[in-house]
Write a structure and sequence with these properties.
By secondary structure, the protein is an alpha+beta fold. It has five helices and ten strands, in the order αββαβββααβββαββ. It is globular. Strands 1-2-6-7-5-4-3 form a seven-stranded mixed β-barrel. It has a three-stranded antiparallel beta sheet with strand order 8-9-10, covered by helices on one side. The protein is 22% helix and 25% strand. The protein has helices at residues 26-39, 70-74, 126-139, 141-145, 198-210; strands at residues 42-45, 54-60, 80-91, 95-102, 106-113, 152-158, 177-182, 186-187, 224-226, 231-233.
């Protein structure tokens, strides 16, 4: 699957009173994104070729704890978010991750899983990953909130018609389940100054492993993101 870089388009279904300024810092942007995703029941994923968007409905709730004033923004959020892919954010043997924009300038990532023959199934499914993270949150919500991992906005599945077909599903080449997560920056391996983050990376990995996650494939900053302020560990299940 390949997503082409496309212009960022404002979702006109979102009331203009919702702040979508480009000057927002990372934390406010992620907060607004988490509120918008927690409030929605479905997402419409558009593509660069102008074909009909693909509708995906929620199958599991957000794991982000609501804040005191989230309900105020939630009242203004649409129940269906219009998502616009920007570019591929990661590629693996069993999964694909794309960075997307919505509500103007907010961003997140959608992780999908490649279909594999039953005899060649490997790795952890998106549902298993989601459930493992949910179990850690349930066991210790306070420690979970401090973990250097992405925010989990929930699971979504492609909606098909009676014939088992969904508009635009060719774009996903058989991928039907998607995990929405926060956008936490770019790979540390792309940074020229990554050696300055060695100690911080070791501390982040220690916190993740202490909570019961394996985080085995993270040598030399692999599967680690940086947003200019903090590190985030990914692919830790």
């Amino acid at each position: 699957m390949s997503f082409h870089r496309i212009p960022v388009l404002r979702d006109l279904s979102v009331p203009s009173i919702i702040p979508c300024w480009s000057g927002l810092a990372d934390e406010p942007s992620r907060w607004l994104a988490s509120v918008a995703f927690r409030s929605c029941h479905a997402i419409m994923v558009h593509n660069a070729r102008g074909e009909p968007p693909t509708r995906m409905e929620r199958t599991a709730p957000s794991l982000v704890a609501p804040g005191r004033f989230d309900w105020l923004i939630a009242l203004l959020c649409p129940r269906t978010l219009h998502i616009y892919p920007i570019a591929t954010a990661g590629e693996g043997l069993t999964s694909h991750v794309m960075r997307v924009r919505f509500c103007g300038l907010l961003s997140c990532v959608l992780k999908s899983q490649r279909q594999q023959p039953e005899e060649d199934q490997r790795g952890v499914t998106l549902e298993e990953e989601y459930n493992l993270v949910r179990q850690v949150k349930k066991r210790d919500p306070v420690r979970f909130a401090a973990l250097p991992i992405p925010q989990y906005h929930g699971l979504f599945s492609v909606v098909s018609d009676g014939a088992g077909h969904s508009p635009g599903e060719e774009e996903f080449q058989g991928m039907t389940d998607f995990l929405a997560m926060s956008d936490n920056g770019h790979p540390v391996t792309d940074l020229d100054t990554k050696h300055l983050l060695t100690d911080e990376c070791e501390r982040a990995l220690a916190l993740v492993r202490l909570s019961g996650f394996r985080a085995n494939d993270h040598n030399n900053f692999w599967n680690t993101l940086y947003d200019g302020k903090s590190l985030t560990i990914i692919d830790f299940v």
